[in-house]
Design a protein that fits this description.
single chain; 4 helices; 13-stranded antiparallel sheet; outer membrane lipoprotein receptor (LolB), chain A; 247 residues; globular; mainly beta
Length: 247
């Protein structure tokens, strides 16, 4: 269920500008991390419903601000830890970003295949976990509640999660709904360290499980995008070519 930062637009992801941040509440007033994670699973539809799903194919449109146009995008995800993104840029061709469980790569319109390196592979092994929201404690041995933030007028619990290997992620859990409304993390882009932030909204129930249908990145600005999903299917039978190289 984790639609994560590093999954989209090859190397970038982010979260729209946070507005009106408030100071953290005193720890005594905050729920436990255990309670926040448990409520998130319940809000998503429950572990039983989530375990029934083995893969997901989402199709929609992505607007890349750098191109100033919308284009088709396909997001595919399969248990235990595979994911792929495919977008077609008119006049240029198709970009595919794939993680096949252990190895990952990006296929570019000019025919190049760029293999993912150690740092990105470490992150992908966590990002691509199909049951990521059930496996927080497995994937992140260190989980810390940072406090409360007001984001767009909504109260969020900020929870920082640090893996054994790879970059730490901060998840923002909506205090009213229990759902994840955003993720902040660090990434390497074009040889620079940047903070990436992504927003999730417009959750809809698909096969008994809540799936965000709008994903928006505004930071860093050169990688800004908005994805709006138009269809989501689970337990697709024909997945033979989802995570194979085409070049």
């Amino acid at each position: 269920m984790k639609m994560t930062t590093r999954q989209f637009v090859i190397v970038a992801a982010g979260l729209a500008a946070w507005a009106g941040n408030a100071p953290a509440e005193a720890p005594a007033k905050l729920p436990s991390v255990e309670a926040i994670l448990k409520r998130n699973v319940e809000a998503l539809g429950g572990e039983k419903a989530m375990r029934k799903l083995k893969n997901r194919e989402a199709r929609g449109k992505i607007r890349l601000e750098a191109f100033g146009a919308e284009m088709p995008v396909i997001l595919r995800h399969a248990a235990p830890n595979k994911e792929a993104m495919e977008l077609t840029i008119e006049g240029l061709g198709t970009v595919r970003d794939v993680f096949a469980g252990k190895k990952g790569w990006t296929e570019t319109p000019d025919g190049r295949v760029i293999e993912k390196k150690e740092r990105e592979l470490a992150n992908k092994k966590i990002d691509a976990d199909f049951f990521a929201y059930l496996n927080f404690k497995k994937n992140y041995p260190k989980i810390e509640l940072q406090g409360v933030e007001q984001v767009g007028g909504r109260k969020m619990f900020a929870v920082k999660m640090t893996p054994r290997k790879g970059d730490a992620d901060t998840f923002f859990f909506d205090a009213a709904t229990g759902l994840v409304s955003g993720i902040a993390t660090d990434a390497e882009m074009q040889g620079q360290e940047v903070e990436t932030r992504v927003l999730f909204r417009d959750y809809k129930s698909i096969d008994g499980v809540q799936v965000p249908h709008t994903l928006e990145l505004k930071e860093p600005s050169f990688a800004a995008f908005t994805i709006r999903l138009e269809s989501v299917k689970h337990n697709v039978k024909d997945t033979a070519n989802w995570f194979k190289k085409t070049k």
